[in-house]
Automatic annotation (TrEMBL):
Top-level taxon in the UniProt lineage: Bacteria
Alphabetic keyword roster: Transferase
GO molecular function annotation: carbon-nitrogen ligase activity, with glutamine as amido-N-donor; transferase activity
InterPro entries found in the cross-reference section: Asn/Gln_tRNA_amidoTrase-B-like, GatB_Yqey_C_2, YqeY/Aim41, YqeY/Aim41_N
Listed name of the protein: Aspartyl-tRNA amidotransferase subunit B
Xref: Pfam families: YqeY
Lineage: Bacteria, Pseudomonadati, Pseudomonadota, Gammaproteobacteria, Candidatus Pseudothioglobaceae
Signal sequence residues: none
Amino acid sequence: MSKLKQLITDDMKLAMKAQDKPALKAIRMILGAIKQKEIDERIDLDDNQVMSVIQKMVKQRKDSISQFSDAGRTDLVEVEEAELLIINNYMPTQLSDDEIEAAVVKAISDTGADSMKDMGKLMGILKGQLDGKADMGQVSQLIKSKLS
């Protein structure tokens, strides 16, 4: 079992003992998504694959919050935000805007990128460096602004 999956399982046990129903619900949701992926692909996920599942869940929550906010459903926004807080506990520390910009500038200078044609190459390099530590949509926007 991956270390991250073991940590999540241990946290579920702690939430059960503490009778923390919101945390327990969110953690069970994470473990359910991990288990579903393991069953679908018939493998045991490693830490990187577990992190990928968690990143997907974070993105889903952010999208839901945006849609519920637009629809004026503050009750549902609060539920999604609470889940997002718990899910974010398993994400690596997020980089600051300045750190992200420094990484983008370095990648541009290292590759000699000078036009939008180089966007794919830059995203490939930065995804490896920043995956899980930064919102890749934000990174993409920053690259576009630097190259145009």
